From TrEMBL:
Top-level division of the source organism's lineage: Bacteria
InterPro entries linked: Glycosyltransferase_2, Nucleotide-diphossugar_trans
UniProt keyword terms in alphabetical order: Membrane, Transmembrane, Transmembrane helix
GO cellular component, one term: plasma membrane
Protein name: Glycosyltransferase family 2 protein
Gene3D superfamilies in the record: Spore Coat Polysaccharide Biosynthesis Protein SpsA, Chain A (3.90.550.10)
Amino acid sequence: MVYERQMGVPRFECNEYEEKSKNYVVLIPIINDGERIVKELERACGNNVPEYADIVICDGGSTDGCTEENMLCKLKVNTLLVKQDIGRQGAQLRMGIWWALQRGYKGVITIDGNNKDSIEDVPQFIEKLEEGYDLVQGSRFVKGGKAINTPFIRTVSVRLIHAPIISLTAHRKFTDTTNAYRAYSARYLLDERVQPFRNIFMTYELLAYLSVRATQIGMNACEIPVTRAYPQTGKIPTKIRFFKGNAELMKILIQNAFGAYKPK
C-alpha cells in the first residue's frame, strides 16, 4: 500500500507482514546498511525483542538487498516502510512515527540500523515509558552505559559541545544527545505543542528538536544506560560526513537553541 503525502509526512510504501501485536514499536531507519542491519535484527531475535515490541524498518531507498522480504520476515520484522520522497533521516522518522501513531502504539523506540547500539535494551525503554516518562534517552555515558571504541573526536564533540547545548536548550542535563537510541510516548508526539510532522525536519533537525521539546513543555524525561560499540577496525558506520555533516549538525544545534523548530 502506498500512502500519498500526508500533511508533513513523505510519500511512502507500506509492506505489512504482520498485524499490530504489541503496545510499542521499534522504528529502525536504514539506507543500504547491508550486513549491519541483518546482524542487528539477528541480535534482536536472539534477545527476544519481538516479544516486547513490533519491529518496523523505515527504509530510505536501499538498493543493496538489505530489505529483501523473505529475510526480513525470517528475522521477525513486522513491517517495512519505504520512503518515496525527498529527505533523509528526519523524513524517514516522520514517516515511521506517523504510521506508528496511526496504528495506535502507546510509544515509539528509535534505533539506528548500523548495529552499533544494544538493541537488547529495548525492554528497559518500554519499562520507563510504562512508568510515565515521555522521553527516554539512551546514554553510553551514564552509570551502567558503555562506550566501546568511540572515536576520540566524537566523544569530545558530544560531551563538550552537543550535550551542553542540548541540555541548556532543554533546561535539563543530558549526556548523549547525538544518540538516536531513544523512546517517545504517544502522548508527547501527539501534543499540539510538539507537532513533529512538519517538512522542516528533513535531516537531523527532528532528533535535536525532540531532545529538548519534552522538558520545555513540562513532560517527563530521563536517561538510561545503553551500549554503543564502534568496530575496532575498518570504516566507521555513519551517515554523517566529517566536515559537511558536522557543520550541518552545529547549524541545527544553534537554530534549535534559538527556537527555530518550535510550532508557530
